[in-house]
Amino acid sequence: MTIxxxxxxxxxxxxxxxxxxxxxxxxxxxxxxxxxxVSDVLxxxxxxxxxxxxxxxxxxxxxxxxxxTRMQAGLEINVAHRIQSWRQPLVDHLAGLETLTPxxxxxxxxxxxxxxxxxxxxxxxxxxxxxxxxxxxAGPVWHTDRSGIxxxxxxxxxxxxxxGKFGQxxxxxxQQGIDEVTLTGGGGSSAMPHKSNPVLAELLVTLxxxxxxxxxxxxxxxxxxxxxxxxxxxxxxxxLPQMAATTGRALTAADTLAHQIRQIxxxxxxx
Length: 271
Known about the structure:
This protein is mainly α. It has helices at residues 23-60, 79-104, 123-134, 147-173, 199-220, 231-260, and strands at 64-69, 72-78, 181-183, 261-264. Strand 1 (64-69) and strand 2 form a beta hairpin. The longest helix is centred in the first third of the chain and has 38 residues, at 23-60. The N and C termini lie far apart (92 Å).
């Protein structure tokens, strides 16, 4: 049996989704809003890590520890001194993220070539209204000025670099024969069951080096030709999300690592 359907569909007239704006306006504005949220997450995690390290210093700060220069025994310090070297950059990173907010919380509304020509005489008024509604600033068009994004990526790399220093110190302190720190929850070895690998410390070093390698790509993405670029813009898409995710993971790993420390310093560490 054959059934014939006679259906008449009436579609509404073609709708203009973002009259006068270009797709880059939409995506860059969305990026600004996203980075504000990313900063909130990172700031909360930085504060949590700082609290954990403060507690660690309170519990073990008076214990003696061998100060080392160029990985050789130097002069005696205490645990609080080394923990302070891990904590101090966190203060700078918190301030750095807050300072960067005006550089990233910006409306993008430039139109096809960055002149807002599609909005006529109302261009600036529309931009101001949109920025106020979204909680952004209505500064100049930044289609080809990616310096704010580059500065933000630089701060991400600085954060993971500081956490990498924390991880590198813990990995060295955990070496058998050095035994300056005792960790719980380390990684085991199938071939060498006597080992307890400082995997989170190693992860922090890896993530720091990964972000450090990506920052060069972000600097390459600064090169936007003429009024708008496709190639440099897409390169930024590929790199920046990875850097943000890497930084977020490094902060959670560092906080977990701080809680895994059961003993640090002591007379046995003065070797």
